[in-house]
Write a structure and sequence with these properties.
The complex is a heterotrimer of chains A (about 210), B (about 200) and C (about 525). Chain B has about 200 residues and is mainly alpha-helical. Chain B has two domains: about 40 residues, no CATH class; about 160 residues, no CATH class. Chain B has seven helices and seven strands. Classes of the chains: A alpha+beta (about 210), B mainly alpha (about 200), C alpha/beta (about 525). At the A-B interface, strand 2, helix 3, helix 4, helix 5 and strand 7 of A face strand 1, strand 5, strand 6, helix 2 and helix 3 of B.
Chain lengths: ~210, ~200, ~525
């Protein structure tokens, strides 16, 4: 496969919003897309840095999101808080292994994958490596694709709490853990959005 | 000097230049460098898209007007809707998830449907919708944050989870939400080039 | 220069750290409690509560090293630190049912929980040994605790009610056997505001169950309430005529009496022991039987023992009685004043004098219905003089057989006499006499009667002749009449003469004076007839 012609190399600039290809004017002034009037960036500014910052924040917040309980279910026999992992385990033990698997994937596997994928990409960007560019871009696409599915647990907690409202018999309510978890999902999404995958192909020319 | 670039396709992931190729049925244009799908063939006309959008709008309305699922326990009846779930989280200190849920699973889909309707209705009328650019930009920006399909899956998980203890009855809203998800997914498959081409729709 | 974007992870770090710090700062004490069993306890679920307020949760359950008990780890709120005194008590609240009460039933639904009750110790600790039964909740509860010494706990269960004038004012919170094994200690808790009723003059008695007394002095049935019938109970009241009614502090000690009478009796004072030796069997005398002195109850039988007299080859009964001299009332006060009561020697000498006057111990029937005996110390007239050993430790009172014994003896004698009567002989004799009589009557009929009839005939004939003789027209009657007339005339003349002589006594000598009428003129005309 021959090296693709890069837009920038060709003196062109593509609008990330509307796709319009414009001629690049490297005069230092910001230029705007003629079609959609959004600011044109050659590359997303400080992409790797921002992505890393959000990633680190997400990783840090991931710890309390797993340690703190996300939901509190109370019945006649008292109440119990449960963390994400405890919820997965209780489903697993209860025989509901499909549910356990779904929640595990959404709440543990996906965020972990995102951490690793974005971390890897950022690291390779810092290293200015040319290694497996296509695969790294595919990895990036994966992150984009699966990114928001981690919100699944938030939805489940919200719906369960909304439904289990039987005074005296049983009730469920969200706990602090879910706030942190939501923050983790948002942070990883912002991190992925900040990451300009084109940089993978830049050979370190545009950091 | 800026050149109109309707002849060139740039891969957003790897910045590779491509010349657009006419696509046949079920054909996709893929980036030569990174494999990203640049374009899909679709034969949707504005009319069809409008119909889809209207259907999506209806589904949205039904999905939010009727409960997704209901539980009856000891004579007490509870039900869940998208907005109800968001509202529950908004109260108390779970404001952040509440906001995220409300925005991503209610407001943004609503916005998307509204904008699409706006654009398509005008397009149907062979006119350029006022604020088309802003609308399309907004559509583009909001796409990654619109998560109705996540809500659908979450609702299914919740049903399965609760049905092991209680008798859960899926409501009409759930079916509407599922249909909405499908419709929005179809609509999202139409690449931005098409939407921007509506700019020239006005006669 | 790093961009502002790094504020984001910085903020994340800050938030994370603040969480950690918050958790660390608000972390309450972690404690370990040893229990016999972990039944009903679940990690992460079982709560620790104080007065029903959740103060912590069980975090781990494990077996002890020796495998004999269970170690339960729990994390408590910071505010609970003050509860962890050295004598704080932990117990598991489970459903418990006893007689007359049930507790912890709500845990059937909500699951067991660990309850804690703080103590008063000054030191604190984090490792505890749980108690298996809920302790009485007295910490912080207003009231007083009272310690009772009792011979046994009778029917008193934990939680048994304490009554004052039939009003429930407290309950039993603890009971244990005395350290020495003689007797028991019962701890009560009297709730405020009734605790002021407990004064130095208060007496406690066992009011539980049904007080059914079948004693030498009668038959009594008493009960306080259904609860006390089931669970036992105590009652108290102020002793009558008590001078000292000062308040008592918590933990004051009292004696538990067996019943209200024993409790309300005037203070018995210190007991003295006397011994008595009875020659005959004392069937019907039980330990606890009353001992009376000239009719006044002064004590009870303490022990009944059998002795063997080698010389006489007999088994006398040794009875030891516990008497309370104070029960003699005023008599005791007098003795106290003149110094006899307190001086053993003087007491012994007094008793010697009493014995010389006839003081004896005698078993008497207290209740004919039950045959129960009691010991009476009384002055028996005609008692045989007895040597009294006045210097022995325990005074030995000489005895006489009991009134019943005399009665028995007399009865025995009567029976013996009756037994000795020759009933057979008498019977035989009587028989013989009756046979004779029969014969006699037969003879009488056959012989005597006919002879008698003949005699009767001759008798009648005789009587007829007599009758004839005595008939009116019989000649001899006429003659009798004549004779009688003559006699009459004679007597008349004689009378006239006597009269004349009376008047004229000289007539006898001179004869009749011519002026005087002739003798007999004055007399009444006589019947015509021959002169």
């Amino acid at each position: 496969m021959s090296d693709p012609i890069r837009t920038l190399t060709a003196g062109l600039l593509a609008c990330q919003t509307c796709g319009l290809v414009s001629r690049r004017v490297p005069d230092g002034r910001p230029s705007y897309c003629s079609r959609c009037a959004t600011k044109l960036h050659e590359r997303l500014p400080r992409s790797a840095e921002n992505a890393l910052a959000w990633l680190i924040a997400a990783v840090i917040l991931y710890i309390p999101s797993n340690l703190l309980p996300v939901m509190y279910v109370s019945g006649i026999g008292g109440g119990q808080e449960s963390t994400i992992l405890e919820g997965v385990l209780s489903f697993w033990r209860g025989g509901d292994w499909p549910i356990a698997l779904v929640i595990f994937i959404a709440s543990v596997a996906v965020p972990a994958t995102k951490f690793l994928a974005i971390g890897l990409i950022v690291w390779t960007l810092y290293r200015k490596s040319n290694w497996a560019r296509r695969q790294r871009t595919a990895l990036y696409r994966l992150v984009e694709l699966i990114g928001y599915w981690s919100m699944l647990d938030v939805v489940v907690v919200a719906l369960t709490s909304a439904l289990l409202q039987f005074e005296g018999i049983g009730a469920a309510e969200p706990r602090l853990g879910i706030v942190f978890f939501c923050a983790v999902v948002v942070a990883t999404m912002i991190s992925a959005l900040s990451l300009d995958s084109r940089l993978i192909w830049d050979n370190g020319a545009h950091q | 000097m800026l050149m109109p670039g309707s002849e060139l396709l740039v891969c957003p992931h790897c910045d590779a230049l491509h010349r657009p190729v006419a696509l046949g049925k079920h054909e996709m244009a893929v980036c030569i460098a990174c494999g990203h799908i640049l374009a899909r063939h679709h034969s949707f006309t504005v009319d069809q898209l409008l119909a889809l959008t209207v259907a999506a709008a209806l589904c949205f309305l039904i999905g939010n007007a009727y409960p997704l699922m209901t539980i009856d326990l000891a004579g007490i009846h509870t039900e869940a809707t998208v907005w109800g779930a968001a509202l529950l989280l908004l109260h108390g200190w779970t404001t952040l998830p509440g906001v995220v849920l409300a925005v991503s699973m209610f407001l943004l889909p609503l916005l998307q449907i509204a904008l699409l309707l706006w654009v398509l209705i005008f397009a149907r009328l062979q006119r350029r919708a006022p604020g088309l650019r802003a609308a399309l930009v907004a559509l583009h920006r909001s796409r990654p944050w619109s998560m109705t399909e996540v809500f659908l899956l979450g609702a299914l998980v919740a049903i399965v989870k609760l049905s092991s203890w209680l008798h859960v009855v899926p409501g009409i809203g759930l079916w509407a939400l599922a249909t909405l998800t499908i419709l929005l997914t179809i609509l999202s498959l139409v690449e931005s080039r098409f939407w921007w081409s509506l700019e020239q729709a006005a006669a | 220069m790093p961009s502002l974007i790094w504020l984001v992870p910085a903020a994340a770090v800050v938030i994370g750290l603040s969480l950690v710090v918050n958790a660390w700062v608000t972390a309450g004490p972690r404690i370990t409690i040893g229990f016999q069993t972990a039944q009903g306890l679940e990690v992460g679920k079982t709560l620790v509560k104080h007065r029903n307020v959740t103060i912590g949760q069980v975090t781990a359950i494990s077996l002890s090293k020796d495998g004999n008990h269970v170690l339960v780890s729990a994390e408590l709120l910071k505010s609970a630190r003050s509860l962890l005194t050295s004598d704080a008590q932990f117990w598991v609240v489970r459903p418990r049912v006893g007689i007359g009460w049930a507790s912890g039933l709500e845990t059937l639904l909500s699951g067991s929980y660990i309850a804690v009750e703080a103590g008063d110790a000054a030191t604190k600790r984090t490792e505890f040994v749980g108690v298996e039964n809920p302790p009485p909740l007295t910490h912080g509860v207003l009231g007083k605790s009272v310690l009772l010494h009792a011979a046994d706990v009778g029917s008193l269960a934990l939680g048994a009610p304490v009554y004052f004038r039939h009003f429930e004012v407290g309950h039993v919170i603890d009971r244990k056997i005395d350290a020495g094994g003689n007797g028991a200690r019962v701890v009560l808790f009297i709730d405020a505001p009734y605790d002021v009723l407990v004064t130095r003059a208060t007496r406690f008695w066992n009011a539980g169950g049904i007080d059914l007394a079948l004693r030498a002095d009668g038959f009594k049935l008493r009960t306080q309430s259904l609860a006390s019938v089931l669970a036992g109970g105590l009652a108290f009241d102020t002793a009558p005529n008590a001078q000292d009614v000062g308040p008592v502090a918590s933990g004051a000690e009292f004696t538990l009496f067996d019943d209200q009478e024993a409790a309300m009796a005037p203070p018995a004072g210190d007991p003295r022991y006397v011994r008595m030796r009875f020659e005959r069997s004392l069937r019907g005398l039980s330990v606890g039987a009353p001992v009376e002195f000239v009719g006044v109850n002064i004590g009870q039988v303490f022990a009944v023992d059998l002795d063997y007299d080698e010389a006489a080859k007999s088994f006398p009964v040794i009875v030891t009685a516990r008497i309370y001299p104070r029960r003699m009332g005023k008599a005791y006060l007098v003795l106290e004043q003149n110094g006899t009561a307190t001086n053993e020697e003087k007491t012994a000498r007094l008793v010697e004098q009493l014995v010389a006057r006839g003081l004896r111990a005698q078993p008497r029937t207290g209740n004919l219905l039950t045959g129960q005996l009691y010991i009476a110390l009384d002055f028996i007239s005609g008692a045989r003089p007895v040597r009294f050993a006045a210097n022995s430790q325990t005074l030995e009172i000489p005895t006489v057989p009991g009134g019943t014994q005399e009665l028995q003896q007399k009865l025995a004698a009567v029976v013996a006499k009756i037994d000795r009567l020759p009933i057979n002989e008498i019977g035989r004799q009587l028989h013989a006499d009756l046979v004779d009589l029969d014969q006699t009557i037969g003879d009488f009929r056959t012989q005597v009667l006919p002879a008698g009839t003949a005699s009767m005939q001759s008798l009648r004939t005789t009587l007829d002749r007599v009758n004839d003789t005595l008939a009116d027209d019989a000649s001899w009657r006429e003659r009798v009449d004549q004779t009688l007339d003559e006699a009459r005339r004679t007597l008349q003349s004689l009378r006239s003469l006597t009269d004349y002589l009376d008047r004229h006594p000289e007539a006898v000598l001179r004869g009749r004076h011519p002026s005087q009428p002739p003798v007999g003129e004055k007399s009444a005309p006589v019947a015509s007839g021959p002169q």
